[in-house]
Amino acid sequence: MMKMLNPIFKTAQLTAIDRYTIEHEPIKSIDLMERAARNFTKKMLEKIPEPRKFCIVAGSGNNGGDGFAIARILQEKGWKARVCLIAYSKMSPDCEINRHRWKGDCRMIESVEEIEFEEDELIVDAIFGSGLNRKVQGLIAEIIGKINKSPNVVIAVDIPSGLLGEDNSRNDKEAIVRADYTFTFQFPKLAFMFAENYPFVGEWEVVDIGLCAENIRSVPTDYFYLSEDFVSALLPRPGKFAHKGTNGHGLLIAGSAGMMGAAVLASKAAIRSGIGLLSCHVPAQERTILQTTVPEALIGVDRSEKCFSGIDHLDPYTAIAIGPGLGKAPETVEGIKELLIRWKGKMIWDADGLNILAENKYLLDFLPENSILTPHPKEFERLAGKSENDFERLNKLSIFANHYRIYILLKGAHTVIASPCGKCWFNTSGNPGMAKGGMGDVLTGVLLGLVASGVSPLEAVLTGVYAHGLAADLLATEKGYRGICAGEVAENLGKAWRILEGGTKRTDISGK
């Protein structure tokens, strides 16, 4: 059985999936709400195990109905809970049912002065759900402001109130709840993947509420997120009779005078990512550095003493990675032009390789189809122009990948992978300790190791990005975020691959 993708749906699609489940399970909407509330409460109490008091701030829609149900379930479990109800409109039918089922403390809030939070209370935000389609104003905006100014821990039910599911470019950021945790129903929202929304979403986890799996598979989407089980099922396993000749021969073009550390990091990562043979093309005067630090690599020297200027023989290679520590000398630019004319195989681009493409945009038309580009946001801006916000950048990323028929990895907390077919995957591994120099060089090496060994570009980018982050996550458990460095991530890749190779199933990544 093929492993199902982890989809991300837009708000209108989520509403339709809810409705389909109610009609075809079949289940009453109030009973689906009860199931969601119980699963939410279970997840929340796993995060907040010690005794606490809860203040549920509820609206009059279905998110408020969730809030009343959560309050009742907490009370059943012996926890102290109260509800502050903001009646901004007539109650939805399910909210009204759960309001009557709630036998505890409920205070109607008609002015911001009427709501106060006790010092040891945990605030549960159940004002608006994912169906919100407008900016929040008036009394509710004032109450949200008061929640945000309080020192209390805040947990959002499904989505922080005031945050829209996709595009928040025109939203009032002062009228969005700033949650510490968000427990979201069945799927993360697209907005959760954007750095600009992290102050509102905080740490998020998915709560399975049992929506119809058959219907979920049938609803089209261009957005997905990576998980360990998905990547593990996707990763090809080496054959019993594999040898260095069948595992590919990759070429790394990297380094320049004073910048050889990048070449070392990329080389170490490639060696630890399944490549059969690795050749490194480096400036003539810098060859000793790689020969002593990465003895597994074969070394080829450039005609130039200090930088890349060209390479004569390309026949042996199954993939090429270019960019780490490369520099932008005039002869390097000419060498890249010549390379693009002669090489039409698999390519990975990083760092100064990307910067040279950005400064000579006509070269983009010469990129081999299915090339992999790995920019950080500033590098992508140089390639494709400025974006006003993360949502606009995502759309631009997808258009750019489709236009040039390439894969683009926009690096960040949720690295997003845009494919030529218009689909995007968001990574969920990795941590803030990776925000240090050299991490991108390691990722380039991982991708070269995978692609050179015969892994398809799509499988390589999905498994490579996740494994890169997983290696850093494993390090963080030993050394904390501050103690992580790029070299140790490269050294730690073997542990990540061992975990991911534990599964046996193959994954369908067609998105159909």
UniProtKB/TrEMBL annotation:
GO terms for biological process: metabolite repair; nicotinamide nucleotide metabolic process. The keyword NAD applies. Residues 227-500 form the YjeF C-terminal domain. SUPFAM superfamilies: Ribokinase-like (SSF53613), YjeF N-terminal domain-like (SSF64153). K(+) binds at N63, D125, S161. Residues 14-217 form the YjeF N-terminal domain. AMP binds at K411, G412, A413, H414, T415, G440. It catalyses: (6R)-NADPHX = (6S)-NADPHX; (6R)-NADHX = (6S)-NADHX; (6S)-NADHX + ADP = AMP + phosphate + NADH + H(+); (6S)-NADPHX + ADP = AMP + phosphate + NADPH + H(+). (6S)-NADPHX binds at residues 62-66, 129-135, 158, 262, 325, 376, 441. One of its GO terms (molecular function) is ADP-dependent NAD(P)H-hydrate dehydratase activity. Keywords: ATP-binding, Isomerase, Lyase, Metal-binding, Multifunctional enzyme, NAD, NADP, Nucleotide-binding, Potassium. Its cofactor is K(+); Mg(2+). Its EC number is 4.2.1.136, 5.1.99.6. Binds 1 potassium ion per subunit. InterPro entries: Carbohydrate_kinase_pred_CS (IPR017953), CARKD (IPR000631), Nnr (IPR030677), Ribokinase-like (IPR029056), YjeF_N_dom (IPR004443), YjeF_N_dom_sf (IPR036652). Belongs to the NnrD/CARKD family. Homotetramer. HAMAP family: NADHX_dehydratase, NADHX_epimerase. Catalyzes the epimerization of the S- and R-forms of NAD(P)HX, a damaged form of NAD(P)H that is a result of enzymatic or heat-dependent hydration. This is a prerequisite for the S-specific NAD(P)H-hydrate dehydratase to allow the repair of both epimers of NAD(P)HX. Bifunctional enzyme that catalyzes the epimerization of the S- and R-forms of NAD(P)HX and the dehydration of the S-form of NAD(P)HX at the expense of ADP, which is converted to AMP. This allows the repair of both epimers of NAD(P)HX, a damaged form of NAD(P)H that is a result of enzymatic or heat-dependent hydration. This is Bifunctional NAD(P)H-hydrate repair enzyme. It comes from Odoribacter laneus YIT 12061. The lineage of its organism: Bacteria, Pseudomonadati, Bacteroidota, Bacteroidia, Bacteroidales.
